[in-house]
Write a structure and sequence with these properties.
This protein is mainly beta. The chain folds into two domains: 146 residues, Elongation Factor Tu (Ef-tu), domain 3, CATH 2.40.30; 85 residues, Immunoglobulin-like (Sandwich). 5% of the residues lie in helices and 47% in strands. The strands form three sheets. A seven-stranded antiparallel beta sheet has the order 2-1-5-6-7-4-3. Strands 9, 11, 12, 15, 16 and 17 form a six-stranded mixed beta sheet that branches. The protein is globular, with a radius of gyration of 23 Å.
Length: 253
């Protein structure tokens, strides 16, 4: 007797990836949270009792809102040289301490998504509500349990950043410079790692004098000379050229 072929693929828990926005609002620079050992995204309804006499003692609840959070366990890590903490881990720990003086001081952007590009991403503002080293014996790894507590709405309509590998520019720092050029410009975005060649970064019609790809979300470029006015900074990789958006406007003055 013929067996029925399997027509599905079971998804793995490790498919989920978390990015932390380490830039100061309104700029945006998402960096991947590395060393994730466990991840539990929680999105739950907030309810209150809505029971009345006519319910004859039966429980009834009314939904009054919702809350969301990420419960994460990370392998506390350093850089490859062992001389400094992983920058995203250090950022989260700093934000935890900042929140002690007011939640607004510790807020940042966070998003999570399927690393295979399946489905949409979720994104929102949050703060670190819990930073708890797990301890252990002398031979144990240093793990930290973190609660990233949502602040305000959770946007579930965000496009999965790995669903389309076309590069995108999400911010410039500074967003302008002299017509003589020669100044360094931080180009922030997504899918920037594949940028190569003289035409990889352009200021309007002119190639950047030079550039260095720092990470998938960060390029440092030297602005070429230009005429007074606003031009588009574009990034090109084998997957395409970044679309024109307001965030890529660079003004020569």
């Amino acid at each position: 007797m013929a067996t029925t072929p399997t027509d599905r693929r079971t998804m793995l828990a490790r498919r989920l990836r978390v990015d932390i926005d380490t830039a100061a609002f309104p700029a945006s620079q998402y960096q991947r949270l590395m060393g994730v050992q466990e991840l539990k995204p929680i999105d739950e309804l907030r309810t209150e009792s809505d029971e009345a006499y006519e319910d004859d003692g039966a429980a009834r609840e009314s939904v009054t809102g919702y809350n969301w959070r990420l419960e994460v366990k990370i392998l506390h890590s350093t850089n490859a040289a062992g001389t400094a903490l992983d920058p995203v881990h250090a950022f989260l720990q700093t934000k935890y301490h900042a929140a002690k003086n007011g939640v607004a001081n510790g807020e940042f952007g966070v998003r999570w998504y399927d690393r295979n590009g399946v489905g949409d991403a979720k994104e929102g503002r949050a703060y670190v509500k819990q930073w708890s080293p797990d301890g252990g014996n002398g031979g144990a790894q240093d793990t930290v349990s973190i609660v990233i507590q949502g602040q305000g709405p959770l946007d579930a309509e965000v496009t999965n950043p790995v669903a389309d590998l076309t590069p995108a520019v999400t911010g410039l720092a500074p967003a302008g410079g002299p017509t003589a050029g020669g100044n360094l410009v931080n180009v922030y975005g997504t899918h920037l790692a594949g940028t190569t060649g003289a035409t990889g970064v352009k200021f309007g019609a002119n190639n950047a004098e030079n550039y260095m790809v720092v990470s998938d979300s960060h390029i440092v470029a030297t602005a070429p000379a230009g005429v007074a006015g606003t031009v588009q900074v574009s990034v090109t990789t084998p997957d395409g050229t970044s679309p024109n958006v307001n965030a890529d406007n660079y003004t020569y003055a």
